[in-house]
Amino acid sequence: MNLYIKQKVFSWNDKFSIYDENGNERFYVEGEVFSFGKKLRLYDLAGIELAYIEQKVWSFLPKYNIYRNGEHLCTVVKNFTFFRNEYVIEELGWRVDGDFMDHDYFISDGEREIVSVCKEWFTWGDTYAVSIDDSSDMVAALATVIVIDACIEAQNN
Q: Which DSSP string corresponds to 97-146?
């Protein structure tokens, strides 16, 4: 499935809309304005929460927990490296590789590519093309992409 994540330009908190290849909105993400660490929620168009993302604040390395239906789904950890970014999705056994500075990376389980992400250039606001393998967990994949974007944004600021 091909999706496009588009960040809202003028917003007090983190807001993303996620569109399908036909330009129809499929999901949206909202962040909490006044909180310690990032707290993001992924919703479907009916307003049902699909995932809750929470940054672990008192951690040496960036670490985010992803929850679905109140249950812990996975933890995304940015590992310590000197020359490149490295992320691991602990409970799912996924790895993230690619060029994070150019927002061009992929997530795999070691055997197959689950998600590929590529930044769309020359757009109003940040827009990312996300291709998710049809047999994969779409909610976990989207939440992981959102976490990696949050880590890259924090690193650049």
A: EEETTTTEEEEE-SSSEEEEEEEESS-SS-EEEEEE-TTS-HHHHHHHHH
101, 89 Cβ separation under 8 angstroms? no
Dist. CA 153–CA 138, nearest whole Å: 22
Q: Are 96 and 78 in contact (CB under 8 A)?
A: no
Low-confidence ranges of the chain (pLDDT < 50): 10-12
Q: What is the pTM of this model?
A: 0.85
2-156 belongs to CATH 2.40.160.200: yes
Domain positions in the chain: 2-156
What tens digit of pLDDT does each residue of 130-142 get? 999 987 789 999 9
